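hey all, quick one before standup. I had two proteins in the batch that finished overnight and I want to keep them in one place so we stop losing track of which output belongs to which input. First protein below, input sequence then structure tokens straight from the run.
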Amino acid sequence: MAQNGTAENGVAEEIPALPFPQPVKVQDIRHTKIFIDNEWHTSSRGRTFPTFNPATGVRICDVEEADKEDVDKAVEAAKAAGQRGSPWRRVDASSRGRLLHKLADLMERDRLLLATLETLDTGKPFLQSFFIDLDGSIKTLRYYAGWTDKIHGKSLPIGWGIFFKSLVSPCINMASGLLFQAGFPPGVVNIVPGFGPTAGAAIACHMNIDKVAFTGSTEVGQLIKEAAAKSNLKRVTLELGGKNPCIVFADCDLQLAVEETQKGAFYNQGQCCTAASRVFVEESIHEEFVRRSIENAKKIVIGDPLDPRTSHGPQIDRQQFDKIMDLIESGKKEGAKLEYGGAAVEEKSLFIQPTIFSGVKDHMRIAKEEIFGPVQCIFSFKSQQKAIERANSSQYGLVSAVFTTNMDRALSVSAALETGTVWINCYNALHAQTPFGGYKMSGNGRELGEYALAEYSEVKAVTIKLSETL
């Protein structure tokens, strides 16, 4: 595999070994079946689908393919788990928190294995899987474990002899093959791997599912909302696409802005809804910003995702690879200047070089469409107002970033940006405590933080007429 390194000749082997955990070797994949009612099941229709390592093309395993019948069984198990008197309903709030902590403990214990599996399945560099994905998952479980016994209703008098009480019914779900050891009762968590037109469609239109949370494309999000409306009007929260702007002002810490915007553009090979794909740079520093961005991109190490030295892996599959390459070609044809990359690493691989375009105009495809690949588009701007207008001129509104040392400017610009998240002098700063979600076609509802609890809760108002006698 061709690689880029920090040395002049770009050979990754010259990079010294890093003092980081080494990925474990996975000899066999044991859990490939459908998980319902704390038991492993084969597909009701007897179908499986293969999953491949995108770095090598090697088949990892075959996974049972769930269909409508399997979704129905999972829903039945979940309904039974939620009935009054069930083992789950008898678990008090504090004990539910302890179960979540136990699951987090088990994930900590098996962190090397889980990170290796994630890298094998997605091609994500191992250190990103270990230090970012697993760390974020564990912290999220611990964060909500602390909430289980702190979700309260309210009581208040509303008039003479009238008393009001609100009741909140929370539901916090999680998924892992470690559920047995953590001690979750049957039916609380069910895992039904499958495809959108079959298992996904069955979930979206199921009359006994009350809530769907979806992360994916805007087009599929629209289909889910339509299915929810036509079925039981189930609650839907959507975290969809993004075409995320960064505004870099001349007074910023320039090297910080270069590093952070590239971290946003190239993390997970650009396969992130938060990808920093539109970077607006003030005209006076535009040329230097581009030069430093090119130099920074040359340091990115392309190679085996299981090698801890690798920072850039393959795209997830051939379909995504072809889409990205088509958009790169469109950038060239429409007049953007290809400053770096823009090609596959090898003829038959799914690796694409980190790619930088300058001179990008707002009408170009690479400026409007979500690329979901390692492509950084650099624009220039003259005025703050124009930069804000251009940043907001998108159907998406997921995240954005502002780079400046002037905090008054940073706050005023962040208030004007039409995105659910704004980062100031940083990028991809995601935390379990911070609500995450988008404006416009980037979706609705919020994940993470206290705000997310409302998405999974029903509020009931109970009004009591009190006796007027003492």
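OK second protein, same deal, sequence then tokens:
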Amino acid sequence: MGSELLYRGSETQPSSDSYSPKPVKPWASVTRPIHYLLREQRLLFVFVGIAIATLIFTVFATSPAPYVAPHSRFTTLIPDSITYFPIETQQKFSSAHRLGFGSANPTGKIPLGLKRKGLRIVVTGGAGFVGSHLVDRLIARGDSVIVVDNFFTGRKQNVMHHFGNPNFELIRHDVVEPLLLEVDQIYHLACPASPHVNCFVSLTKPCVLHKTNVVGTLNMLGLAKRVGARFLLTSTSEVYGDPLQHPQKETYWGNVNPIGVRSCYDEGKRTAETLTMDYHRGAGVEVRIARIFNTYGPRMCIDDGRVVSNFVAQALRKEPLTVYGDGKQTRSFQYVSDLVEGLMRLMEGEHIGPFNLGNPGEFTMLELAEVVQETIDPNAKIEFRPNTEDDPHKRKPDISRAKELLGWEPKVSLRKGLPLMVSDFRQRIFGDHKEGSNTNNASSS
């Protein structure tokens, strides 16, 4: 007998467990966030947070005032040594290297609202005559500067006005020994440059100059390669020797005696240029080469044998001005602030060089002696002495390339710059601190 399913109406029908959701209200996706913000003053907190964030970004985006070195006698003597590049120059020579170590910005442009990041720069020979003025400019620009100097010819007094500045470091070190640093740029100025020191060293310690120019340059190029820094070599007009071309262009290969008394310096610098270009071609190091012509100004060594410092010191001491040979050999003299401007433009630019950096104004030694007489003592005597070996007869730079590619040319004439140097020498020789008025007059002229 088969089974049968019966329905009894009196029995309760089983209830269903199925769920039926409420119908979705229109505009719920819009009204719910609004109701959420309006409850418990949440909207007020949002506006307060926005205001605080805006204030923080505004404060931190404002550039702090640059460090100004304590007052020194050179503040009035050399106003150009603590000035900034014009905005046009910064834009013209902007590159990735201006943004700081390890920057990946290929355009070199600083994003809107952000301040320029200071570079970390090492200056070898930074306590010397030219190096110390370069350090002044870099510090004033907001960079962190590491001075490396063994004080063979450099003087701690040249940079001591930066002591206490957190952006300044001084390392007593000889570049012939390796040095490990993390930097963005390397200005390689280390090497005695005066003829008196060069000849003395070549006779007493003949390997010193070669080691500085060769081993020292190798060490600094190796550092540039390891950390990806840009490297600037300060070469010299001495690479032209006793030139047969006048004025001298960068394409001229020179007329140098490789075994003369001056060759330790001349050939050392020529070798340094060779090494610099080899590292550029073989290792991809970014390099710059400057060939510096005669430079003068405050902080020069008083008795270093250079003609301008010789004449100025002799005139101040009431000694005869010593002219070697017939006095008809010519030189060109640039003021130190002009040279520093050229070096910085070369470093920030996109051209390797070499570039002649000098003042094309040409003077014979007798004409220079006359200018010194006019500036210091009209009664100063001139004394002739036998000429030195391999002394170049003519020296004048052709700076057409620097004018065209760097937008650089010297601004300070000899008659304007010489009084500034005289004031510095007078203070250092005699301790005369009453030269402010003379300096201001010379600067305004």
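Flagging for whoever picks this up: Residues 1-10, 70-109, 198-203, 433-445 have pLDDT under 50 and may be disordered. Residues 98 and 119 are 7 Å apart (CA to CA).
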